[in-house]
Design goal:
The protein is α/β, with parallel strands linked by helices. It has two domains: 224 residues, Rossmann fold (3-Layer(aba) Sandwich), CATH 3.40.50; 117 residues, Beta Barrel (Cyclophilin). It is 23% helix and 24% strand. The protein contains ten helices and 17 strands. α4 packs across α8.
Length: 381
């Protein structure tokens, strides 16, 4: 910044192996977490999502011992449970990410589940087996087909800690062999979903939902399973965030309604007014931005500094403890800690370890260079 011359940063639906003659993962088609870990599982003509890394597989027992609780919300009433191959496979060192994309995290169903969790604010639970599947498609397919023929119920590494606290369950899975991974049936038979509202989301190949819904209904006879099901082709899963979150909104389970979201957004915008002109900035979530926000409204004198910025001095020092350093160009609202002044950049500037970003201009940025004299700063209406 100017004073240098003189003295920011940044988580699928079930893969399906269903379709005839298909060899890809099945998917369709987003944080609390009771148990998070997986991606689609393979076992259908359309190679199911295979998203599981070696670490996940190797630490399945540790996850179970920990109660599969990553960030469980004690008062959450929504559970987002899903099965994914990527969470249930030992990832070979030579696995081909192009030939077996579904076994590379994040898997199709895992992504979809993450987006559902993001929209609902529910707890996330990854259904994992104690004996992981191989990451080789043919080997996984052979085992999955054998389990289907034997009507097996693979042993699970962990169970939901307190199923009674949930009255809504979003259940994600891939289509395997025109049905579901047998581990999904293990989960349904070990957890009583009687009376709970259940919403299905599935990633699949050309086989679509096939027999998966009837198999789930049979395994959970007391559940209230909605016929409003989200499904998508595996190759579309990674681009399905908007679609699946719109689906969740249509069901009425978004974490907050649009009105609340809009109000929150507006509450973080401030207006700088001078004459008949107004410049709007959107603040970030740093403590420094909060410190400025709590001092509003303000009437201050704006001064020129160099040829790329306007500055003013707030009455109180801003807390920069968790503030990101300013890295963007024109339009940045920043705070220079050594001089305790707020900076409004209208042209490029050089980063400085003592220069912290507060937000970015959202309208009126072309007017900043004209700003002079006394201005008023308040919450944008």
């Amino acid at each position: 910044m100017r004073r240098i011359g003189s003295l920011f940063m940044a988580l699928t639906l079930i893969l399906s192996l269903a379709a005839c003659g298909s060899t890809g993962e099945g998917t369709s088609g987003s944080e609390s977490s009771v148990s998070v870990s997986g991606q689609e599982t393979p076992a259908s003509d359309s190679a199911e999502d295979a998203e599981s890394d070696a670490d996940t597989a190797d630490t399945a027992e540790e996850t179970a011992a920990a109660g599969d609780t990553e960030e469980s919300s004690q008062d959450s009433r929504i559970l987002v449970a899903y099965y994914s191959w990527a969470d249930n496979a030992v990832l070979a060192e030579d696995v081909d990410a192009v030939a077996s994309p579904s076994v590379i995290p994040p898997g199709n169903v895992q992504q979809l589940a993450g987006w559902v969790q993001e929209a609902t604010g529910g707890d996330l639970f990854s259904i994992q087996v104690t004996d992981p599947y191989p990451s080789d498609w043919d080997a996984c397919l052979e085992r999955a087909n054998q389990e289907r023929g034997d009507d097996a119920r693979p042993e699970l590494a962990a169970d939901v800690e307190n199923m009674n606290q949930y009255d809504v369950v979003f259940l994600g899975y891939p289509n395997w062999w025109y049905g579901v991974p047998m581990a999904l049936l293990s989960f349904l038979e070990q957890n009583d979903l009687s009376g709970k509202e259940v919403y299905l989301f599935c990633s699949h190949g050309t086989g679509g939902l096939a027999n998966s819904v009837s198999l789930i209904t049979e395994a959970a006879p007391g559940a209230v399973i909605s016929d409003n099901i989200f499904d998508c082709y595996e190759e579309d899963a990674s681009s399905s965030q908007e679609n699946i979150q719109n689906w969740v909104a249509e069901l009425g389970y978004t974490d907050m309604d649009d009105t609340e979201t809009e109000a929150d957004d507006m509450a973080r915008q401030i207006a700088v007014q001078f004459g008949d002109n107004t410049v709007i900035y959107e603040l970030n979530d740093s403590t420094a931005a909060d410190s400025l926000y709590t001092q509003l409204p303000l009437t201050v004198e704006v001064e020129d500094y160099s040829t790329n910025e306007k500055i003013f001095y707030p009455p109180q020092e801003l807390d920069t403890g968790d503030a990101p350093t300013a890295q963007s160009g024109a339009g940045t609202l920043a705070y220079y800690a050594p001089w305790r002044d707020v900076v409004m950049f209208y042209d490029a500037y050089s980063p400085n370890a003592s220069l912290y970003e507060l937000g970015q201009v959202v309208s009126g940025g072309e007017l900043v260079g004209q700003m002079t004299g006394t201005v008023t700063i308040d919450i944008a209406e």
